[in-house]
């Protein structure tokens, strides 16, 4: 290392066991990339069927990756254990990453419970996409508050290189940056504000695209083609909303509009009747086979 630079912390000295809560698209992806980097992971979800679905997605993803990278899916999978016991997953963890439903109360309740059983040194990280870390941390003890941070990943986790870090400083921030690099990702650091960097910019952008189509200014297909070919984005906004989930985007905006995020009442985030109709019809994007586009 260069003069004046400190040697990078070896994250594996302090983080040996990771517990991931939520075996959905995000939690499963996080468990996968953490295990790929050599950490032992426990993946928790409420029901065995949620875990089974999550593990199948991980197996499929590892299969795709192993065609172009030096990855041995069997040894990665061996490092992931699963449980439906919330407490059991937290006992031995040095780092907890929660990727459960995007609901403040549910996240607070989970962390409150885990706070009582996790080691004092255990770091609590939230993968929230829109809530404030300090709100989620309200139910944990004072000492743990200082160790409750955001580690925010992007979909698809196996491919997207970024992790946003919020609410950490000093040695804890150094450790988290080293951890993020160790799992093959690039960290960025930001303040604890709604949507951090990426979603604070993406959500209004997606919303503008939707309003453009609702006004009849252009078609869904033409807006997507325009942003792919005219702005160089890998996907247009409607393809992206279908991938992340129509319901996910809707709840983020509703939370900002109605909650106490500092963005309440902002007309840009007013819940849309058209989107509510889509949700009622279960047109949630990829995951239900239909959103702005139809998938077979
Ligand atoms: N696991 C393993 N490999 C995967 C994968 C997965 N889950 N998903 C895609 N891949 C691989 C494919 O196999 C493919 O590999 P090859 O190049 O070797 O064939 C490669 O990734 C590219 O995939 P595709 O060819 O299918 O399609 P693409 O070139 O359009 O790439 C994409 C797909 C990476 C998703 C790209 O379109 C993209 O970057 N889109 C934007 C995604 C984005 O903005 N994500 C952020 C959403 S916001 C969010 O996540 C935050 C939140 O809180 C809501």
UniProtKB/TrEMBL annotation:
Pathway it works in: Lipid metabolism; fatty acid beta-oxidation
Name of the featured protein: 3-hydroxyacyl-CoA dehydrogenase
Domain 3-hydroxyacyl-CoA dehydrogenase C-terminal: 195-295
Protein origin, superkingdom: Eukaryota
SUPFAM superfamilies on file: 6-phosphogluconate dehydrogenase C-terminal domain-like (SSF48179), NAD(P)-binding Rossmann-fold domains (SSF51735)
Residue ranges of domain 3-hydroxyacyl-CoA dehydrogenase NAD binding in the record: 17-193
Record key words, sorted: Fatty acid metabolism, Lipid metabolism, Mitochondrion, NAD, Oxidoreductase
Keyword Zinc-finger: no
Pfam families in alphabetical order: 3HCDH (PF00725), 3HCDH_N (PF02737)
InterPro entries with a match to the protein in the record: 3-OHacyl-CoA_DH, 3-OHacyl-CoA_DH_NAD-bd, 3HC_DH_C, 6-PGluconate_DH-like_C_sf, 6PGD_dom2, Mito_3-hydroxyacyl-CoA_DH, NAD(P)-bd_dom_sf
Catalytically driven reaction(s): a (3S)-3-hydroxyacyl-CoA + NAD(+) = a 3-oxoacyl-CoA + NADH + H(+)
